[in-house]
Design a protein that fits this description.
89 residues, mainly alpha, Arc Repressor Mutant, 2 domains, 3 helices, 0% strand
C-alpha cells in the first residue's frame, strides 16, 4: 500500500515500526563494534629476537613516527597484512 493512501495514524505507526527497526539495527552495530574493539585490545605477547642493527633502525624509524619500537613493529606488521590482503583479493 502507498504511504499517501494511509491515514495519519497508520503512517505514524509505520514510522514507529521503522524507527524501532533502525534502533535495533543501530544497537546491533554498536554491539559488533564493541566486540571488535575488545578483540583488538586483547593482545598476544610474542618473543622476538632482532639483530642490534635492525633494532637501531626500527628505533630511529619509530622515533620519527612518534611511536614506541613495539608500536612501530605492530604498525609495520599490520601494514604488511593489509597489503597482502589487498594484493591477494
Amino acid at each position: 500500500m502507498n504511504d499517501t493512501m494511509l491515514t495519519p495514524e497508520e503512517r505514524e505507526e509505520a514510522l514507529q515500526k521503522r524507527l524501532a527497526h533502525l534502533a535495533a539495527m543501530e544497537a546491533e552495530v554498536r554491539q559488533k563494534e564493541k566486540a571488535l574493539k575488545e578483540k583488538e585490545k586483547a593482545k598476544k605477547q610474542v618473543p622476538l629476537r632482532l639483530s642490534a642493527t635492525l633494532w637501531e633502525e626500527l628505533a630511529v624509524w619509530a622515533e620519527e613516527d612518534f611511536r614506541s619500537i613495539n608500536g612501530q613493529i605492530e604498525f609495520l606488521l599490520a601494514e604488511c597484512v593489509r597489503q597482502r590482503k589487498k594484493n591477494n583479493k
